Amino acid sequence: MKKLTFLLCLVALAGCTTVPRSAKDVGWNVGCQAYTFRSGTFFEAVDKTAAAGAHYIEAYPGQPVGGGIDARMGPGLDAAARQKVLAKLAEAGVTLVNFGVAGAGNEQEWRNLFAFAKDMGIRTIVAEPAPEQMKLVDSLCKSYGVNVAIHNHPKPSRYWNPDVELAAFKGCSKRIGVCADVGHWVRSGLDPVTCLKKLQGRIITLHFKDLSAKDPAAHDVPWGTGISNVPGVFAELKRQGFRGVFSIEYEHETPALAANARRCVQYFDQNAPLTERELRSGKAVVPGMTPDVNQVWAGTKPGKADLWPVGPKPLLKSDLSNAICKKDSWQWEDGVLTAKGGGDIWTKETYGDFVLELDFKCDTNTNSGVFLRCADVVNWLHTSIEVQILQPDEADKKHICGAIFDCLAPTKNAIKPVGEWNHYKITAKANRIQVELNGEQIINMDLNQWTEAHKNPDGSPNKFNTAYKDMARTGHIGLQYHGHPVWFRNLTIKPID
């Protein structure tokens, strides 16, 4: 009997220490702020949220409803329109959880807003009430059973600093807290982890963004690929025991919006189940990459999740003073780097392990490429790796867009039609080269498998006098001019230590 009791205690203890393996186990959910899809109707935003793999949505005031309803989202919706909206949400499997950023000028407008929220099953109104309205808002929160989360727009807005938020709802019930907009804190020059620590116990929901740079003009990028220290933010929220919704919100339009939203959901699904300790030890992984930092970059150094990683920087300066090229052969035109003839363009600086991102656009017969780790810009053909840019299709798939030219075919042809912008994300880490084209990983190459000059691992020939395993692991980055029109923009490089 004593032995059985001991075994049962061990089983119970094991159950108490089981690590959650899904986001829902810790009360985390992912959704979209409908503002991300503001170019369409609310009904379209619901569909796009579901397509991204998210099941929660935050509506925003004034978005056209859609679905044959000639009205806009907000308290002005009549009863029939409200029922149609709820039916649409149920059909799509999406829950309307928040509404914002909203506000009201007087008591009756606030009451109308709260009544709308309660009628639609909305848990939280995201708002920026004036400090003198806080007592009224708090009383309405209690009356209607609806939360209000104060939102932080960037500096110099009223609530850009968490200290101001804390002072504003001092003395109010826990029904009033914050909607932590992580990206806006970064735009304001604040560390999001520090801000979260200040607001512990009052974080109700999040507008979640990862940004390209710590700058007011920075743009949104898929979670885990920017400088907002997403692993550190996740870890801090785990420490606090946060339970709530992470709303994906993009402030800028991009052709890759739908794909980027899916990538954010993938990042969430992959990393939200991790423990605080795992997040702080560098186990957070960008979708499509392995957690083995010796093979492919995993985003954060072990033990340094609280430190901001080095952000991406422009690959080429506005005056091209850090480039090697013939005079006037390349020019910036309204932020677009345009080939004017006269040869390739190279970085003066050399790079070893890095993440390179850029947009490119082709003409009908464009043939170009991105050169990596070039040891000799004169003898570039035999001393660099070329990620192919080619608009037309080719019978030899090792020559189509996205291929490692003449060596490895992409898993699919993901190039967009002539005249549309494409996006490359190229990661070089030791012997690994990974290529994403328009949000899809198409190359995962181990250079060490190319052991012979002029020969690929599958036995097919290639042009190169040096086996890829023996090529330099550090070198210049280049853009090819092959006699055909080609355009580049948004070129950034992020070295990997």
Question: What is the fold's blueprint, element by element?
Answer:
Layout: H1 2-16, E1 28-33, H2 42-51, E2 56-59, E3 64-66, E4 69-72, H3 79-92, E5 95-102, H4 107-119, E6 124-127, H5 134-144, E7 147-151, H6 162-168, E8 176-181, H7 182-187, H8 192-198, E9 203-208, E10 210-211, E11 220-221, H9 230-240, E12 244-248, H10 257-271, H11 276-280, E13 313-314, E14 323-324, E15 330-333, E16 336-339, E17 345-347, E18 354-362, E19 367-374, E20 385-390, E21 422-429, E22 432-437, E23 440-446, E24 476-479, E25 486-495
Parallel strand pairs: 1-2, 1-12, 2-5, 5-6, 6-7, 7-8, 8-9, 9-12
Antiparallel strand pairs: 3-4, 10-11, 13-25, 14-17, 15-16, 16-25, 17-24, 18-21, 18-25, 19-20, 19-24, 21-22, 22-23
Helix pairs in contact: 2-3, 4-5, 8-9
Structure commentary:
- The protein is α/β, with parallel strands linked by helices and 497 residues long.
- The chain is built from eleven helices and 25 strands.
- β7 (147-151), α6 and β8 form a beta-alpha-beta unit.
- α2 (42-51) runs parallel beside α3 (79-92).
- 47% of the residues are buried.
- Residues 1-20 and 288-310 have low confidence and may be disordered.
Could you report the average pLDDT, rounded to the nearest whole number? 89
Under the CATH scheme, the architecture of the largest domain is: Alpha-Beta Barrel
The CATH topology of the largest domain, please?
TIM Barrel
What is the number of strand segments? 25
Specify the overall morphology. Answer: elongated
Instruction: Name the CATH superfamily classification of the largest domain.
Output: Divalent-metal-dependent TIM barrel enzymes
Q: Using only CA atoms, what is the Rg? A: 26 Å
Structural class: alpha/beta
Low-confidence stretches: 1-20, 288-310
Termini Cα gap: 58 Å
Alpha plus pi helix count:
11
Task: Estimate nothing, just give the exact number of structural domains.
Answer: 2
> Which bin fits the share of residues in helices?
10-25%
Percentage of residues in DSSP E strands: 25-35%
